[in-house]
Write a structure and sequence with these properties.
The complex is a heterodimer of chains A (about 325) and B (about 375). Chain A is mainly α. Chain A contains seven helices and one strand, in the order ααααααβα. Chain B is globular and about 55 Å long. In chain B, a hairpin with a 3-residue loop joins strand 3 and strand 4. The chains are: A mainly alpha (about 325), B mainly beta (about 375). Chain A: It is found in: Nucleus membrane.
């Protein structure tokens, strides 16, 4: 009997009534990753054919590298959250049962939106919002560089990933994944070496020194708009519930401000909620290029300097030459 | 002038420009009065042990608010409690008399609703991301997961935790359905704990997702025993994972909260901010950074419904005790950084009548 090819793909609509044979293939039905009523082409893992091939013979991980490329491209084009770890998971198609390398690629550390928001709030409370935006900009450059490397997959990067997924001891140094890594120890989730935020281990205070300064044309440029001059009278404030104009206002009995504490921990007194502000950039994003000549002298100096001076932050983006 | 709210201009995330809807309540749901001014991080309805429906919301403005929701969908503000930092998670005690809250002030507090008193019951070295109440036949305790890479269990009468478990990384999300707890951390770690007698690690599970985990929710089998969980990531994908699958085919992943960007070739990818299971039907709801929520049937592997798009992302959602009401919070989830934070934008909490919509599809 003819084996039903739709059944092998997990999508035969005749079921038991099918006139073709429904037998599991020798490897078993590997179509594990069904999508919700979505076409087959949107499977998570490589196509059935490649899957069966790679499991039948010694795995050719090189042929699966396109998955890494696609992941990086889709995430960059799709506006995905940038500060995430990444696990290529090519090893799942390898016959090697034990792989001492972590699933996650080194140098890509998770930062959740909540962590960054909390960091932003704290910096703002300490009057150091600039520091936060600077650090964040550097951090995002690092992640973007790595994502671009994964998109382009030059020979060195490809070799590294294949060997990494095979469980070999390899270092990303020398590849485009490694330019950032070279100043930090190899991936160790407890060291958080890439992070520069206060919530991580105290020794990671130095900003990245050996940053690859070349600004390759970014697919999605991370444009930071520095806080405006009006940060003093910030538009971002926490409203007290009493300012609500809703008809049904809260008739709450306020609990005592200092709750009894059973526990003798040193609780830092955070400033009153009403004074916490995060500066909101007032300059909307401008995409036009402004030539040298239209900039004021002060603006030009600012762009040429290493850091913006407070009070002299230009209101227009830098000209192309200075980017 | 304020930072871009998403109208025009590119963000660091790419050129996905979303035309914001002009209607703040496109689903025509009941609007909860006096919502928080800052982002809402967590929502929880009162448990089945009390007859009324109370809704608790924790917010980045340091407050935990309580409303009573009546039969007509009207919300009545009841009370409010304050922490010393943004609130990241809230939980109810099993008898519905106390509310636990935890957050960036590294503390967890227990708020007794009857007396309106609150006391500190937990402390960590870093913000507490998750808190869950565990009720066992021989013990009850509060489980807190923190960015200090520990999971602590607190008997409310004692100053020190009764148990501290080290996590491989910062705790990002957790869920408890006795006798199982699932915790997920940074770097895609997934740990299952069994809670009988004393909590202990039962299993480490290899994550089926490739990117940062964001939310997790345990589901139960027909007999009411916890059997698996749904896991959401920042990559617009959810994994349905059985703790001990009878068949590896039982585990699967699906994409969600994706949209066709202006660039047709690539989809916009949004994070899954929250996942909750319907208490009666066992179907699940996902809340996305794209400002939509969707209902899914994991057994027939079908999508039941997707909502209209809200003005901002949906940061939290929950079902009430009998599965009649689906509450969801519309506020900024920081998915595009500080540039897109617009404090002038109003936050909302909506109540959606969901019982019929969430009925499972017949398996074809």
């Amino acid at each position: 009997m003819v084996v039903c090819k739709f059944f092998l793909e997990g999508r035969c609509r005749f079921g038991v009534n099918c006139k073709n044979e429904h037998t599991q293939s020798r490897i078993g039905n590997t179509y594990q990753q069904q999508s919700f009523n979505q076409p087959v082409r949107q499977q998570y893992f490589p196509q059935q054919q490649k899957l069966r091939e790679s499991q039948q013979q010694e795995t050719n991980l090189e042929s699966l590298l396109y998955v890494v490329k696609d992941d990086a491209t889709n995430s960059m084009q799709g506006g995905q959250w940038l500060f995430s770890c990444y696990a290529p998971l090519l090893r799942k198609f390898s016959k090697i049962s034990y792989n001492k390398n972590e699933e996650n690629l080194p140098n890509l550390i998770d930062y959740s939106p909540e962590e960054l928001k909390w960091e932003a709030m704290q910096s703002s409370m300490n009057g150091k919002f600039h520091d936060y935006t600077d650090k964040l900009q550097k951090l995002s450059q690092n992640y973007q560089t790595i994502q671009r490397a994964l998109q382009n997959l030059d020979q060195a990067t490809s070799n590294y990933i294949v060997r990494y997924e095979r469980g070999e001891t390899v270092s990303p140094a020398g590849t485009s994944l490694g330019n950032i890594a070279s100043c930090f120890p190899a991936a160790n989730t407890t060291s958080n070496s890439l992070s520069q935020f206060s919530f991580t281990l105290p020794h990671t205070q130095n900003p990245i020194q050996a940053l690859n300064q070349q600004q390759q044309a970014a697919v999605a440029p991370f444009k930071f708009q520095l806080p405006s001059q009006q940060s003093a009278g910030a538009s971002f404030s926490f409203h007290l519930p009493s300012q609500q104009t809703a008809a049904a206002s809260f008739s709450f009995k306020l609990s005592p401000q200092q709750p009894q504490s059973l526990i003798n921990t040193a609780v830092t007194n955070e400033p009153n909620a009403t004074t916490r502000q995060i500066p909101v950039s007032a300059v909307p994003h401008i995409t036009e290029n402004i030539s040298h000549h239209q900039l004021s002298q002060i603006d030009l100096e600012q762009f040429k300097a290493d850091k913006f001076s407070f009070g002299k932050i230009p209101r227009v983006p830098p000209p192309i030459e200075l980017r | 002038m304020f930072g871009s709210t998403g109208f025009g201009g590119s963000s660091f995330m790419g050129s996905n420009v979303v035309t914001a809807p002009t209607n703040h309540n496109p689903m025509k749901d009941f609007e909860v009065v006096s919502p928080p001014d800052e982002s809402i991080s967590c929502l929880e309805f009162s448990p089945a042990s009390i007859p009324q429906n109370f809704l608790i919301a924790g917010s980045w403005d340091n407050h935990v608010r309580c409303w009573e929701i009546d039969q007509t969908g009207k919300s009545i503000p009841k009370s409010q409690e304050t922490m010393q930092g943004p609130v990241l998670d809230v939980a109810w005690s099993d008898d519905g008399s106390k509310v636990f809250m935890a957050g960036c002030d590294k503390m967890a507090k227990c708020w007794d609703l009857n007396s309106n008193q609150s006391i500190q019951v937990a402390a960590h070295d870093a913000p507490i991301k998750t808190c869950h109440w565990i009720k066992s036949h021989n013990y009850s305790c509060l489980m807190t997961g923190s960015w200090d890479k520990t999971l602590k269990f607190w008997d409310l009468r004692q100053q020190s935790p009764i148990l501290t478990i080290n996590l491989p990384e910062r705790c990002y999300c957790a869920d408890v359905e006795y006798p199982v707890a699932v915790v997920s951390t940074a770097s895609r770690h997934l740990i299952v704990y069994q809670l009988e007698n004393t909590p202990s690690e039962a299993k480490r599970i290899e994550s089926p997702l490739k990117y940062q985990h964001r939310c997790v929710s345990i589901f139960k089998d027909k007999k009411g025993m916890p059997t698996g969980f749904a896991l959401g990531s920042i990559e617009g994908r959810v994994a349905i994972q059985y703790i001990t699958p009878s068949n590896p085919k039982d585990n699967f992943t699906f994409k969600c909260h994706r949209s066709n960007g202006t660039n047709q070739q690539y989809q916009d990818i949004y994070a899954v901010n929250d996942i909750k299971f319907h208490p009666v039907h066992g179907t699940l709801a996902t809340a996305g950074s794209d400002g939509r929520f969707s209902f899914w049937d994991k057994d027939s592997r079908t999508k039941l419904k997707t909502s209209e798009q809200m003005e901002q992302s949906i940061t939290a959602c929950c079902f009430n005790r009998d599965g009649q009401i689906f509450a969801y919070a519309v506020s900024y989830d920081w998915s595009k950084g500080h540039e897109f934070n617009n404090p002038q934008k109003k936050n909302y909490i909506f109540l959606h009548s969901c019982y019929e919509e969430m009925k499972p599809r017949q398996k074809s």
